[in-house]
Fold this sequence. Notes:
- The structure is a single chain.
- The protein has 70 residues and is an all-alpha fold.
- It has a domain at 25-69.
- It is 64% helix and 0% strand.
- It has helices at residues 24-47, 49-69.
- The longest helix has 24 residues, at 24-47.
- The model has no long low-confidence stretch (mean pLDDT 72).
Amino acid sequence: MNQRLKRWESPRSEGRNDKGKGGSARQRQKRKQFQMLRNKLKSHKKGDSASAISFFVLIHLSVAILGRFS
């Protein structure tokens, strides 16, 4: 059942005490983790263009070989 509000009250969301303590440290950890992953990907992109091409060639050959046996 709805509760009637006084004219000076504003509606409050239910479960407002359900937020828990300290989510900001976890957010900082995640932000740092994603930043490290981005930096790692950037460093791999700079010097590993030949390895990326060889990876796609390897995938193509494995698909071709598997296609023969099916």
